[in-house]
Design goal:
about 30% helix, about 700 residues, alpha+beta, about 25% strand, 27 strands, single chain
């Protein structure tokens, strides 16, 4: 017999699900007590004819009795919401404290949820595939979804929670208002494939109970895992203005003999009273349990395809992984940004488009390295975002491309994966590699520190990278931990990007990678956005262990400065003698009112093959609340006579400024800004090689003084 679940376990569960006693089954099928006992204990299985009779008794299909991967059609209890009763000692929880560890922000969600998916990667030879789907429901589609989640049963609880004058109650009230007044509900689904799925029992130790039943339970067995606090999953509920998340999991390890369509829902509400009955807070959506001690508690159930579709939880394949459906998704950061633009709060399409764009941006910034592959290596992650409205496409599925969001950094990492790095930069486009030592201290009470060598990569920056002269750090699954400007760079340093790979990110054969992973993981806060002193680091290692982190970071910065300080003798930026002739002018003289004027504090430039100067300028702005309107002017510093002015073929605004018809408008209140420009060769009075270049900032004619 080609069995899934053991027949005895299947039989026991069917008796519980149907509230049928063993004696009743014996009477219906004409069995002896000894025969049923033998089946239940696994000592025997019934013959074919008896199997048919048992199938009829449970309302199960006869064919399914052989595989036992489904329950009887008539044996399932109707799914419902189970609300946890109030504590008998009078304690009250006005919300899940774990959700306040993070902002209700889809950028934070993308970072935390994707990190959790990477930690559950199953087949190490293939990437984890993560897809975010924004789905806005209105009208009849919204009504059908509310019916599927038994909204009428939930509404009294929502009404009681929203009436409370406290933080969670106000968020819920706003979520209800948005749904009822605007007749819309935004669903945000996070699907991962090639991941473990929520395996394990409903209540005992395992991935399922860690996510659905417990707080601060990480369940991460791999030392290179990104998460360690068990808080990241809380971002799912924090992103829901209704506190509701529905889950559909395809398991990598069978539970109850099956793997597909294991469903459950969890609702996080504050303490409340409904019909004079107090409730503690959380609720679960599932099948009522019949096990002793858990009677009536909602547990996960094995759903049919129609139910999964009605709940908008259909998965595209049978590959293991989990789908989380955030009901009533809201993004406080994008809403604030839209409000600042004076946009219409009721523009639903603009709202979902902003959410889509922020998800794509967050995935690119945090996981570009995980999405980078070498010639002989696969990426760790593939990620995409799509947006729907009532089942119709609003924005096509957009796969995040690391080469588009982080061009030079992706190029640098690929060069390392392909073994194409150099030990010093001599040509444009090269990637330099250096080794940075990390001393990993022994665990508290033990002896013997370990030496780990992290990998440092440095390459020239490109415009698409964002801020230049930054160093990003990462470990394990190659999620960006921190991005920071390299300090103490000499003036005139060519723009670059640096990457510090530690632990397993430095390579599977890196010495002491496992110990480095554990050490760095212990040094990360719940946000996993830096390495430094933490309570765990102090308790597991020593009170001074964080000093090894400081030494490591300082050594990395020194290595960066050494690499970028070496001359690039074959670069396309023109002869060194010409670059030395670059001069900068401070711009407008200070006015009578004091406070100074904008000055150019850094100027990088080089010649291209056509003889045009490519200039990048950093501007220091004086303190003040007014904008500055100025024009960049290029002049040739010839050997004799007045400096001739040359024209620009292109001026591009950078940080804290914008290009307007009259010149560059520098942002009010900003203290620094940048711009890039290219000279017009047709206006050069002599070849650029024969003169130096001077760049000035001049007040635009006719503009206000400040």
């Amino acid at each position: 017999m080609d069995a899934g679940e053991e027949f005895g376990a299947w039989l026991v569960r069917q008796l519980k699900r149907t509230d049928m006693s063993r004696e009743e089954l014996e009477e219906r099928v004409g069995l002896t007590r000894a025969a049923v006992s033998a089946w239940m204990t696994g000592r025997a299985v019934p013959v074919d004819e008896t199997m048919r009779a048992i199938a009829d008794a449970f309302g199960a299909e006869y064919a399914g009795m052989h595989t036992r991967t489904t329950d009887g059609a008539g044996s399932g209890r109707p799914v419902r919401w189970y609300h946890r009763p109030a504590y008998t000692d009078g304690g009250r929880d006005f919300g899940n404290a774990a959700t306040f560890a993070f902002d209700a922000d889809v950028e934070v969600l993308a970072r935390e949820a994707t990190q959790n998916s990477l930690d559950e990667r199953l087949d190490r030879s293939a990437p984890v595939r993560v897809r975010y789907t924004i789905h806005e429901l209105t009208g009849e589609n919204l009504a059908r979804f509310r019916e599927a989640v038994r909204w009428d049963d939930l509404f009294p609880h929502y009404e009681a929670a929203a009436a409370q004058e406290q933080k969670v109650g106000r968020v819920i009230a706003e979520g209800l208002r948005d749904m009822y007044e605007r007749d819309r509900l935004v669903l945000l689904r996070v699907d991962d494939y090639n991941a473990s799925g929520l395996t394990g029992d409903d209540y005992e130790d395992g991935r399922f109970s860690a996510v659905v039943r417990r707080q601060l339970d990480s369940r991460k067995s791999d030392a290179s895992a990104g998460g360690s606090y068990g808080l990241g999953k809380a971002t799912l509920w924090a992103t829901s203005s209704l506190g509701m998340v529905l889950i559909n999991s395809t398991l990598s390890v069978p539970h109850e003999g099956r793997t597909e369509r294991r469903l459950v829902g969890r609702l996080d509400l504050p303490w409340r009273t409904v019909n004079n009955e107090p409730f503690a807070g959380p609720a679960w959506f599932g099948e009522p349990d019949t096990a002793p001690g858990s009677e009536g508690v909602a547990r996960s159930w094995w759903a049919d395809e129609e139910t999964v579709e009605r709940l908008h939880l259909s998965r595209e394949s049978s590959a293991p992984g989990t789908s989380f459906l955030i009901v009533g998704a809201h993004d406080v950061a994008s809403i604030s940004a839209d409000s600042g633009k004076g946009g219409d709060e009721g523009d639903d399409e603009e709202t979902v488009q902003a959410m889509h764009a922020r998800l794509v941006d967050a995935l690119g910034r945090n996981f570009w390295a995980a999405m980078t592959a070498g010639r002989s290596t696969t990426p760790v992650l593939e990620a995409s975002v799509r947006t729907l409205r009532n089942g119709h496409v609003v924005i096509e599925e957009e796969r995040v491309d690391p080469y588009r969001v982080q061009p030079s950094r992706t190029r640098a990492l690929k060069a390392y994966l392909d073994g194409e790095t150099v030990d010093r930069l001599t040509e444009s486009g090269q990637v330099a590699l250096a080794r940075v030592p990390l001393t990993v201290p022994a665990l508290r009470g033990q002896r013997g520190a370990a030496e780990h060598e992290a990998v440092l990569l440095v390459t020239a920056a490109e415009d698409g990278d964002g801020k230049p002269n930054q160093m990003v750090t990462m470990r394990g699954n190659r999620m960006v931990i921190r991005e920071a400007r390299v300090p103490d760079l000499p003036l005139g340093t060519n723009p670059f990007q640096a990457i510090l790979l530690a632990g397993h990110a430095a390579g599977e054969d890196a010495a002491q990678a496992e110990r480095a992973e554990a050490f760095l993981r212990a040094s990360e806060p719940p946000e996993h956005d830096k390495w430094g002193q933490t309570d765990e680091l102090r308790s597991v290692y020593s009170a001074t262990a964080h000093r090894r982190i400081q030494e490591f970071t300082s050594a990395a910065y020194r290595s960066v400065r050494e690499l970028v300080g070496r001359a690039q003798t074959k670069s396309n930026e023109g002869p060194r003698a010409l670059r030395d002739l670059l001069r900068l002018d401070g711009g407008p003289k200070p006015g009578a009112r004091g406070g100074g004027a904008p000055t150019i504090r850094g100027l990088d430039a080089g010649l291209d093959a056509a003889g045009a100067w490519h200039v990048r300028a950093e501007v220091r702005l004086p303190a003040g609340q007014d904008p500055w309107l100025l024009s960049p002017v290029a002049k040739f510093d010839v050997r004799s006579g007045a400096r001739p002015v040359v024209g620009w073929s292109e001026v591009v605004a950078g940080q804290n400024c914008e290009l307007v018809e009259a010149g560059l408008l520098f942002k009010a209140g900003a203290r620094s800004a940048s711009f890039t420009a290219v000279t017009d060769v047709s206006t050069h009075p002599v070849r650029a090689e024969l003169a130096g270049l001077v760049v000035e900032l001049q007040k635009t004619r006719g503009a206000a003084s400040r």
